[in-house]
């Protein structure tokens, strides 16, 4: 086992580079009806009373026009739907990152390999993606979430899940040497 800095790398026999199977990813969420997602987000806003009473909006003296309340509600619904679609995208990436790529490496070694090779992930944090996949077997509908989860807690939940999972590997954690492995990343979201 080679040691570079504080990381230990799996010794791969020979000198040749190994080609791993392609990583098939979806860079956009696999959601069929965006209008339903926004509608469910709208229901979440109503259920959790996220829009202030019209008498208290911006300290207005008079009544707030109904169209202004509807506009604010729609803005918030779109924001919640966007947070949910981000969650689904991260979950989809996490579904593809499995621990059994190389049997002698640590559980999180493939994630580290992707980070070492600077694989473009469309802004998805790979550790967070795996954490989401560990937390949810399938992405639940937006109606199962609270606004607090979508806005604040999902990142913490995903990070904790990944860290706990990664630490299940016995020490020393072995990484895959990035110079010894190649693979292609194929975006399955692209329609032809």
What is the gyration radius calculated from CA atoms? 22 Å
Distance between the termini: 45 Å
Number of domains: 1
Number of strands: 7
- Molecular shape: elongated
The count of helical stretches stands at 5
Q: Uncertain spans, ≥5 residues at pLDDT below 50? A: none
Question: Helix/strand-derived class?
Answer: mainly alpha
Work out the strand percent.
5-15%
**Integer average pLDDT:** 79
Instruction: State the major sheet.
Output: 3 strands, mixed
Helix fraction, binned, reads 40-55%
Order of helices and strands: EEEEHHHHHEEE
Strand order of the largest sheet: 1-2-5
Explain what the structure shows:
By secondary structure, this protein is mainly alpha-helical. It has one domain (2-31, 82-187). The protein is 43% helix and 9% strand. It contains five helices and seven strands; from the N terminus they run ββββαααααβββ. The chain has helices at 34-47, 66-96, 109-116, 126-135, 147-166; strands spanning 2-4, 7-9, 18-19, 23-25, 174-175, 181-182, 185-187. The strands form three sheets. Strands 1-2-5 form a three-stranded mixed β-sheet. β1 (2-4) and β2 (7-9) form a beta hairpin. The longest helix has 31 residues, at 66-96. The protein starts with a strand and ends in a 5-residue tail after the last strand. The mean pLDDT is 79.
Features:
single chain, 192 residues, mainly alpha, two-stranded parallel ribbon, 9% strand
Would you spell out the secondary-structure blueprint of this structure?
Blueprint: E1 2-4, E2 7-9, E3 18-19, E4 23-25, H1 34-47, H2 66-96, H3 109-116, H4 126-135, H5 147-166, E5 174-175, E6 181-182, E7 185-187
Parallel strand pairs: 2-5, 3-6, 4-7
Antiparallel strand pairs: 1-2
């Amino acid at each position: 086992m080679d040691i570079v800095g504080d990381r230990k790398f799996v010794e791969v026999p020979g000198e040749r580079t190994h080609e791993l199977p392609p990583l098939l990813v979806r860079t956009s969420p696999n959601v069929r009806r965006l209008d339903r997602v926004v509608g469910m987000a709208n229901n979440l806003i109503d259920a959790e009373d996220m829009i202030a009473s019209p008498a208290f909006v911006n300290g207005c003296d008079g009544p707030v026009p109904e169209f202004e309340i509807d506009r604010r509600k729609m803005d918030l619904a779109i924001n919640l739907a966007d947070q949910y679609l981000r969650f689904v995208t991260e979950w989809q990436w996490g579904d593809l990152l499995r621990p059994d790529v190389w049997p002698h490496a640590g559980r999180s070694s493939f994630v580290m390999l992707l980070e070492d090779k600077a694989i473009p992930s469309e802004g998805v944090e790979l550790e967070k993606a795996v954490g989401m996949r560990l937390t949810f077997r399938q992405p639940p509908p937006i109606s199962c979430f609270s606004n607090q989860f979508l806005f604040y807690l999902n990142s913490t939940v995903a990070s904790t899940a990944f860290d706990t999972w990664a630490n299940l590997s016995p020490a020393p954690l072995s990484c895959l040497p990035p110079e010894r492995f190649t693979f292609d990343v194929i975006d399955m979201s692209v329609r032809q």
